Amino acid sequence: MATIGAFALLLDDDGSVLCVRQNYPPHEWTLPGGRVEPNESPLAALHREIREETGCRIAIERYVGTYARTDADDLVLLFAARILERGAWAANGEIAALGFFPPASLPQPMNARHRQRIEDALNGRSGLVRVYDAPDRLLESFLP
To answer: What is the pLDDT of residue 108?
Structure first.
């Protein structure tokens, strides 16, 4: 059974992207979000994960797309959302750091799939599907 994750593109007033750095290998920067728990909806998981990882309360604005890795049995749902409220945040066992970054200056290390998701969301795409057959090798895409 595939692992399903829900993630969101969140921007500040200047158009900078909220990124989080994982506190576990490979210690990469990514968009906030995480795995859907058993008996949890992807939208509920997104709200929960964003709150846990960033302290933010959000409003989901748009479904961007689905990203699948056939080599890892992994499925990611990406949404564009806006921040309604920013709460207190501190580093924890899951997230080492967070920050807002201009789209042209995203933090490193960040893998190519994460960068593609950010680009898709920033370009206003919706309803797309991207399938990878290796960590960073695109196999096929559906761009409506």
So the answer is: 97
